[in-house]
Amino acid sequence: MANKMLNIILGTKLKMSQAFEGNVRTPITLIEAGPCVVTQIKTETKDGYQAVQLGFGSKKLKNTSKAQEGHTKKAATKTQPRFFAEAEFIEGEELKIGDTIKASDILSVGDTIEVTGVSKGKGFQ
């Protein structure tokens, strides 16, 4: 098994599809996973635990608050990330702010994954 650094990658659902094996239909969800940018590194001395904050996606600069713009300034990305999440270190090399993590860095063929999603809230509709 490959040397794993993180246990998480962010992605968005693109579409649903289906695959056929003989006469059996299997539903498939197509997910765009990564690339994620390291926007902050949490250390044991400063924050009390070790973690990495990842940013994924992009949004317009006019839709970003000044506080969030300042927070991601060190990452030196061309666009502002839309989603943020923290990931714990498992093992591996050191990461720096602004590094890009791809899905191929974390996943390999045959890996079993767990997917967690957030649905859009639509009230009482």
List the helices and strands and how they pair.
Elements: E1 11-21, E2 24-33, E3 36-42, H1 44-47, E4 51-56, H2 66-71, E5 83-88, E6 100-101, H3 103-106
Antiparallel strand pairs: 1-2, 3-4, 3-6, 4-5
Polypeptide structure, described:
The chain is mostly beta strands and 125 residues long. Helix content is 11%, strand content 34%. It has 3 helices and 6 strands, in the order βββαβαββα. The strands form 2 sheets. A 4-stranded antiparallel β-sheet has the order 5-4-3-6. A hairpin with a 2-residue loop joins strand 1 and strand 2. The radius of gyration is 17 Å and the shape is globular.
List its salient traits:
two-stranded antiparallel sheet, four-stranded antiparallel sheet, mainly beta, globular, 125 residues
